């Protein structure tokens, strides 16, 4: 519950929780900021008894011990919004996701600050959930009721990241750009489409159900239309485990088996979270570099490849997900990959996917650890009628150079003929919003 000082007038709260208001022009966006920021303070009032669910865990961070993200039918469970780190990174992956890249249209630094305040206010309200306020007769509804009579939190996470282009001359942020942040270049076999690449901001929305993600997207678009314009969008989803363990991708292989332990603070501090100190600007501590790659799969061609050859291309067994040395279909996908007894790659080829990603050599050790958090996608067929299905690859790492070095190793992998990376970008996921007085990018902008 909120105390008296945190309560706001009813009119401001009506503005704060509106989920289907019209797309504002710049003036309306600026006028809406006050209501949006008030919504951040009033989360407890808006969410009834859910104020406690939105408070940070004791260590002011997020990890898998704080919540279990197996999908629920009622959608009443919430992921903590406030914390040292943003949710949606170490959070166990939900079923549904949308990646939204934006070009910022704010006219100046002040409007940019107001944009981040509005994003924060909406994210806090949406992730906490609660009953939308009543509105006067004849007024637009305060919510579209897509989620029913109350806004369900449904394990929703809102993760905001900035692209290199935000640090051009528009807002005077150039000296504060993260040290390794750059625009994604095309690797040897990429076919990058500028229409689905890069962006000033990236907003990643994840939840246990598709309607929750859609509701959050419409809400954020409505409240920020005068401050940013959508550049590209990618909807993703995760399949259920078949039969157990890690979910599979469209090629039928288990995806993301080898990952850092998100519950191990030492491991995450070493591999994912940016630490204080040079060469990174001070404000970046607690953030992380995010990579999104839209990878189309040529599934008709892939399906003509014998399973034993598919396994050698990936470097894992298809049915079990286990390393190549495990021949039983019931072998665990958690068995360690060991190459010490296969130096020539007779069992696990030297140019298979997982061995190039992590060769387990001293030279590659520093550039092999990323936190994968990927999804699958399925879009409309191309003009020739070919399916556009593939991988919404997403990963987080303390240094962008880690991913770039890994991708350079993969340029000659055996999987190349069956995929075509055609979009995405490099971003820096901001540090967390620590409390109701904080907002996204505050340390960057002040």
Written description of the protein model:
- By secondary structure, the chain is α+β, with helices and mostly antiparallel strands.
- The chain has a domain at 4-163 and 198-238 and 273-287 and 430-445.
- The chain is built from eleven helices and nine strands.
- Strands 1, 2, 3, 4, 5, 6, 7, 8 and 9 form a nine-stranded antiparallel β-sheet that branches.
- A hairpin with an 8-residue loop joins strand 7 (375-379) and strand 8.
- Helix 1 packs across helix 2 and helix 2 crosses helix 4 (109-128).
- The longest helix has 20 residues, at 109-128.
- The chain is globular and about 70 Å long.
What is the strand and helix layout of this fold?
Elements: H1 10-17, H2 26-41, H3 43-46, E1 96-104, H4 109-128, E2 157-162, E3 201-207, H5 210-224, E4 228-237, H6 265-271, E5 288-297, H7 299-302, H8 307-314, H9 353-357, E6 371-372, E7 375-379, E8 388-397, H10 400-409, E9 419-429, H11 442-445
Antiparallel strand pairs: 1-3, 1-4, 2-3, 2-9, 5-8, 5-9, 6-8, 7-8
Helix pairs in contact: 1-2, 2-4, 4-5
Query: What structural category arises from helix and sheet content?
Result: alpha+beta
Major β-sheet, in short?
9 strands, antiparallel
| Element string (H = helix, E = strand) | HHHEHEEHEHEHHHEEEHEH
Please bin the fraction of helical residues. Answer: 10-25%
Large-scale geometry: globular
> Which strand-content bin applies to the residues?
15-25%
Question: What is the overall number of helices?
Answer: 11
What is the CA-based Rg, rounded? Answer: 22 Å
Mean pLDDT: 86
Low-confidence regions: 1-28, 30-60, 62-71
The count of DSSP E runs of length 2 or more, i.e. the number of strands, is: 9
Termini Cα gap: 30 Å
